[in-house]
Amino acid sequence: MESFGEVTFKGNPLTVVGPRLNVGDEAPEFQLLANDLSPVSLSDSAGKVRLISVVPSLDTPVCDLQTRSFNKQLDALGDKVTGYTVSVDLPFAQARWCGVAGVDRMKTLSDHRDLSFGDAYGTHIKELRLEARAVFVVDATGVVRYVEYVPEVTNAPDYDAALAAVKALLG
User: Fold this and answer.
1) What is the CATH number of domain 2-22+45-170?
2) Three-class DSSP category at 98
3) Is 63 a catalytic residue?
4) What is the per-residue pLDDT across 31-40, written as a single tens digit (0 to 9) for each?
5) pLDDT in tens, 46-100
6) Torsion angle of C-alpha atoms 56, 57, 60, 63, degrees rounded to 10
7) Listed residue (136, 109, 119, 138) closest to 46, CA to CA
8) What is the mean pLDDT of residues 131-158?
9) Which stretch of DSSP H or E encloses residue 26?
10) pLDDT (tens digit per residue) in 126-144
């Protein structure tokens, strides 16, 4: 499934591969690479609320800010929440970035191999072979409870709305 024009980069329309998820959908399983090249799947964090922040590349200002912002907020939410930042950056680059940025709560995961996460979550930008900016909140049972596809890749997501969705699931 492909859609054209729902996402732009500097105003230019792009093609996104994959379905658009909706609140109430079952979150697709994924297998991504952690910084140490170990596989990480959605089911690894079953029983926890998951905040999945999707960015084109950690080496850009908005993606950097997005990951740092969510990392800071996760400290206040405790261990019932797992945070993932997904990009197509290589795991080595993600590890370097985390070390420099001091990010320790958001686990950076790489979709560089085949963009299977992007294809399943509707974030694979065909022309750029990058992820579109998006945020998903998945409950402890694997149901999507919040979705934001950011229409312009260079814009930030609605941090407050995503965090409100996480907090609502925590009670």
Assistant:
1) 3.40.30.10
2) helix
3) yes
4) 999 999 999 9
5) 999 999 999 999 888 888 888 988 999 988 888 899 999 999 999 999 988 777 7
6) 70
7) 138
8) 97
9) none
10) 999 999 999 999 999 999 9
Examine the pLDDT at 43 and tell me if it is beyond 90: yes
Q: What angle do CA 94, 112, 79 make, to 5 degrees?
A: 50
- Transcribe the chain into DSSP letters: -EEEEEEEETTEEEEEESPPP-TTSBPPP-EEE-TTS-EEEGGGGTTSEEEEEE-S-TTSHHHHHHHHHHHHHHHTTGGGEEEEEEESS-HHHHHHHHHHHT--SEEEEE-TTT-HHHHHHT-EETTTTEEPPEEEEE-TTSBEEEEEE-SBTTS---HHHHHHHHHHHH-
Q: Which of 58, 63, 98, 109 is catalytic?
A: 63
State the Cα–Cα distance between residues 57 and 10, nearest whole angstrom: 15
Task: Tell me the domain boundaries of the chain.
Answer: 2-22+45-170
Name the token pair of 99: 């070390």
Residue with tokens 């191999």: 113
